[in-house]
Amino acid sequence: MRIGVIIAAAGKSTRFGEGDKLSQDLGGRPVLLRTAEAFTKRDEVTTIIVAGPPDDIEGFRQRFGPALGFNGARIVEGGRIERWESIKLALDAMPDDVTHIAVHDGARPCIGNELLDRVFAAARVVPAVVPGVPVRDTLKRVTEESFSASEDDAVADMILGDVGKSATSGRRVTETVSRANLQAVQTPQVFDAALLRKAYKTVELSGTTDDASVIERMGEPVLVVEGDPRNIKITSVDDLALARAIMNIAPPADRAAHLRF
Which domain holds residue 22? Predict the structure, then answer.
């Protein structure tokens, strides 16, 4: 089993706020490097390709190139609009001798060896495997447009006044969605290399949100194995704090000076 890993890292981090989430400190190393390091320790992994932002690819290489190169990873230019564009470009750069291709989010640094063991073991016997965790929260489908109680509820407006107006705006529920058999899917998603290459060449890619959905459009089965709730994707500043807690890493300001780098 020879696994080539694609790390999707071309996003603009718009939901994170100020700064680049992949550059944020995790125990003296950036988030992206922590993510890549999880795969460098695996004997099955022979190639790591990181798809970076095309509009800042040189800056990306300056920030991450030396450390990623030291770990045997190579940077290629990713896509501008949809995620599948980055994966397609990375696939073109992937060596032909890999038997499997794993696709992972650059902002998921909390990936553990136990989860990799499960996903890689399943990939030995099925052509498409993804990790997932059961959806535990109640799910509500809501309206696309927002409403404010202060605008259409005179009683609420009288009680809350200006102070409560922002707290009363939101979207109306249209239905409660059954969570039976629902799974929140994570990465890495692992595929037979020939199957994934064929899928990217033959199906309509527009609108696909992960690589499993590309395989699904071919009509091929995808196996979901047990994921890990700790394998979170960093999207917001709160997620970064949670990742540090999961990895038992203090923020830079809370670490001794000699441990910050």
Answer: 3-134+180-259
